[in-house]
Amino acid sequence: MSSVIQAYRFVLDPTEVQAAALSSHCGGQRAAFNWGLARVKANLAQREAERSYGVAEDELTPSLNWSFYSLRKDWNAAKHEVAPWWADNSKEAYATGLANLADALNIWNAGKKGQRKGRKAGFPRFKSKHRDTPSCRFSTGAFGLSNSDRRHVKLPRIGVVRTHESTRKLARHIERGTARVRSATVSWRRGRWQVSLSVDIERDEPKPATRGGTVGVDLGVKSLAVLSTGEIIANPKHLDAAQRKLRRLQRQAARRWTPGLKPDRQSKRWHQTQDRIRRLHTYVANARQDGLHKLSTRLVSEFDTIVGEDLHVAGMLHNRTLSRSIADVGMGELRRQITYKTTWNGRTLVIADRWYPSSKTCSACGVVKAKLRLSERTFHCGECALVLNRDLNAACNLAALAGEVACSTSSQSCGATENEPDGNPCKTAASSGAPGNGYRHGKTTPSVVKAT
Question: Which residues form the Cas12f1-like TNB domain (predicted)?
Answer without folding.
Answer: 332-398
